[in-house]
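Quarterly update from the structural biology core.
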Amino acid sequence: MSSKMPLKFLTHGWLSSVDKPGVPDLKNAYLETGNVHVITVDWSATASSIFYPWVANETKNIGARIALFLDGLNKWYNVTGEQVHLIGHSLGAHVMGIAASQTKMRVNRITGLDPARPFFEFPSHLNDSEKLDSSDADFVDIIHTCGGLLGFLSPIGTVDFYPNNGVAPQPGCEDIVKFFDGNYNNVLSTNM
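Predicted structure, tokenized:
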């Protein structure tokens, strides 16, 4: 592992995995650019539970494990926070925010793809360390595509993007069931 190359961490959301549409496409797009390491984080053993409140609560544990992994990369491979870009969809966005807030290094960037709303924005009793927010990294960009329903509508990043006003249904995603099947490819078609 070249310790100077950028390092992208990618993860999925509720009822999804790294093998469902979205994560493999993004991983392959980054790898085609060359000179980048990509790590996909599969927490589908937890995320596959239909009991959403439990899965939402478990984001703290998943994020803590990623933070420990980041600390290990720093210790053993001299990976710095400047190299790290964490990317997560739905509950995975909060997983990445939690990981960044718990690692010993200061993470450079987090991209939140439609951070989950239920139990994080409404109703919420969580403090900022238990969900994604603008303080988790040097730069936090958020793409809102299902705001007010399954995703945050309020701004929580350094920069927040609202394609088509940030609300559902988005073009190509008229069937709400597609949101639960990892269908966020249309969001990922932009040049990052």
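Residues 52-77 form the longest helix (26 residues).
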